[in-house]
Amino acid sequence: MGGNAKFTKKKHKERYAILLTCKTVPYKHIDNHVIDTLPLAHYWVLVVNLGWDTYFSIHYPTYYELTREFYATYEFNYPKDITTDTPRFNLTCGFISSEFAHSVEYEGAPCNFPDNFDLTISWPLLFSDDKPYHTSTSRSTYLRPPDLWYIHCFLSMSFSGINDDSFRLSKTEFFFLFCMEHSIKINLTAWLGRQFLFMAKKKRGHLCLGSIITFIVIKLGVLDMNKTNMHIAYEMEPLDFDCLHKMRVIYKEKEKHYCIAPPGPDLAPQIICSKHSRPTATEFDEEATPSNTSISLA
After folding, report:
1. DSSP readout, 2-57?
2. What domain of life does the native source organism fall in (predicted)?
3. Nearest in space to 54 (alpha carbons), one of 211, 244, 234, 240
4. Closest to 186 (Cα-Cα) out of 84, 106, 77, 79
5. pLDDT tens digit string along 79-88?
């Protein structure tokens, strides 16, 4: 990978040029020490409830060229009346078990927001905020279950790619938390497919999910990490105590023990940057060549 391959389609080359202007943001991974130390006894139960065990355990670096080429060539046919069937891809990537792939539960796994997902009813069940849910103003700091607050911190950085306002609660993130609480497994590939498509169409801002892209192409046999000359943008870093403290999710009690902040209005968190960021893209992007990695989810 990273040889002298060229884009075969003009639209892919043009999209790649646009993506060069987007910043690649780091992917955080779950810190088991935090899970074991803080009162997050239901964390793994909630993750298993959603059916995303593998996703929450991924630990791979993000590559500049791979991430941008993936998005430049990415295609995903996502019908409006969705009955998206993706067991083969889910199985190949290890997202689900063979047993689950052939189950009735998998066939019914939501690929979009179901009709019975009522924001008005669901909001007060999980959040202490008296105001109704609104996509632009509602905050995860009002979450009652501390496990879900930690999970949302992970989702905001490592699914949505929000580094500068990690408490903003999107409708998609809200739905994921709702499904965790109600033991509803959802189709990971369908939701990732839509998020990938959203990133691929960006003309500015941040690109995320780089570590997931690395994971997928390795599982598909496209990438050998020991035989690549691509540039690492970020190594994955833990969503650890230091990170949570900067975000005001936790505080120190008597300068000794960390405690989770109570539900309520948030203080402005610091922007969480990578501790080990690599050289900026401008050092090599002008000469970078695509690695001929093309993923299409039909």
Report:
1. -SS---SSHHHHHHHHHHTTSEEPPPEE--HHHHHHTT-TTHHHHHHHHT-TTGGG
2. Eukaryota
3. 211
4. 106
5. 554 444 567 7
The closest of 129, 123, 147, 136 to 50, measured between CA atoms, is: 147
**Cβ(289)–Cβ(3) under 8 Å?**
yes
Strand 257-260 and strand 250-253: pairing?
antiparallel
Q: Determine the length of the chain.
A: 298
Lookup result for tokens 């109600």? 182
* H/E element, 71: helix 64-73
Place of tokens 């599982």: 219
137 phi and psi, to 5 degrees?
A: -120, -20
- How many Cβ atoms are within 10 Å of 66's Cβ, its own excluded? 26
Residues 30-88: pLDDT tens digits? 999 999 988 888 999 999 999 888 889 899 999 999 999 999 999 877 655 444 456 77
CB atoms within 10 A of CB 30: 21
Rounded Cα distance between 101 and 112, Å, is 18
205-226, pLDDT tens digit by residue?
888 999 999 999 998 888 888 8
